[in-house]
Amino acid sequence: MTSAVTPFLLLAVVVTLAGCGKDADKNGAAKAPAAAASTAAAVAADPMLVQADTETRKWLKSAPVAVVEFRETLRVPASASVDETRVARIGASVTGRISDLEAVVGKDVTRGQVLATLNSTELSTAQLAFLKAYSARLLAEKAAQRAKLLFDADVISAAELQRRETELAQAQAEMSAAHDQLQVLGMSESGIAKLEKSRTVNSKSFVVSSITGTVIERTVAQGQVVQPADAVFTVADLSRLWIQAEVPEKQSDLVKIGDTVKVQIPALGNRAIDGRIVFVSATVNPETRTVTARTEVANPDRDIRPAMLASMLIQDHPQKRAVVPVDAVVRENNRDYVFVTKGPDNYKLVPVNLGNESNGMRPVIDGLTPDAVIVTAGAFHLNNERKQNLQ
Q: Is the pLDDT of residue 19 over 60?
């Protein structure tokens, strides 16, 4: 009896275990779809989550947030201007009427070149006064010489000789004053010597350039009366220009005299021009809350023109900073985002606050933890997939 029951029990146990095994297989097979469903539900619940498909994964690269020695680059608006140490505002030396204009805006001129001619009664009067003083001096010289001969011959007294010498000294002083007045009115030494020799009054006066450069402004027309206080022409040497930038007050501590900078001018294809800060304003502009910084650039080909818009790139001092590659940044709704890994093929788009770019990197101000792993390449494709899933 016992031997008959035992095989039956063994068969029951085998059948039972087999059934349990089938149930276990069913439960195990059910866990994977359940996990996938849970992930899909999480992605659907959070629009910032995305699960990369096979095609998108080909584009993706991930890496921990890097901490490197970083120099932030500050980009500030700037403009070109003439070098104020290489500009001359040229006016007439006498009051007169313009009779001839020889220079126009844009013309290159040399030092001493005549820019305009004018007729001046003031100059004529001064020349006449000089000729009178010159004649009076000649007469006083002859009188003093004759008095010296008469005194030596004991014909006149010492007092008379002294009177003649005093008159000569006075005549010489008056001629010297008249000579200086002609120089003030713009006559050269050669012109005065010519006047002294010819004894002919000439009312013409010339406006001449005091530097070699380019005429950048003219404020008169032919026939116009000008005075010495009027600036008739502005001539500038454009072979070297200033680039002046307006640095925001909060970032003005980044700018120091002697710092190297780069200048980019959009009109020249953003060509990079190296420079060095030569001036930083000691005051803040109360209207714009900016500080003026200046660099000088060579302009041998005159391709940089005054008033051209530019950008000045100023580098901060190096310091350890967490950075992300530019390719990792997604720009949406005027904010910066990066994708952070949340598991195998799962990513979340998180907002971040980043600084200015330098050498393809942007410093992290906030929004990422030091141990975060981010998508460094393929973020654009991943974000497109995220958007498609939301449709």
A: no
In the structure, what pLDDT confidence band is assigned to residue 154 with cuts at 50, 70 and 90? confident
Instruction: Residue 164: count other Cβ atoms within 10 Å of its Cβ.
Output: 20
Three-state DSSP state, 44: helix
pLDDT in tens, 87-139: 999 999 899 999 999 999 999 999 999 999 999 988 999 999 999 999 999 99
Q: Which two tokens stand for residue 236?
A: 């500038």
In three-state secondary structure terms, 306 is: coil
Q: With left for phi above 0 and alpha for psi between -120 and 50, is residue 368 left, alpha or beta?
A: beta
Contact 245, 293 (CB under 8 A): yes
Decide if 302 contacts 213 (C-beta within 8 A).
no
Predicted local distance difference test score (pLDDT) of residue 41: 56
- Residue 248 CB neighbours (<10 A): 14
DSSP codes of every residue in 55-115: HHHTT-EEEEPEEEEE--EEEEEEEEEE-GGGEEEE--SS-EEEEEE---TT-EE-TT-EE
Residue 210 tokens, joined: 């005091």
Which residues are within 8 A (CB) of 229 and not within 5 positions of it... i.e. 6 or more apart?
Answer: 91
- H helices of the chain, in order, are 2-45, 54-57, 121-152, 158-184, 189-198, 379-390
What burial class does residue 377 get, using C-beta atoms within 10 Å of its C-beta: 0-12 exposed, 13-18 middle, 19+ buried? middle
Question: What is the rounded distance in angstroms from the CA atom of residue 73 to the CA atom of residue 315?
Answer: 4
b/e map 128-139, b = 16+ CB within 10 Å? ebbbebbebbee
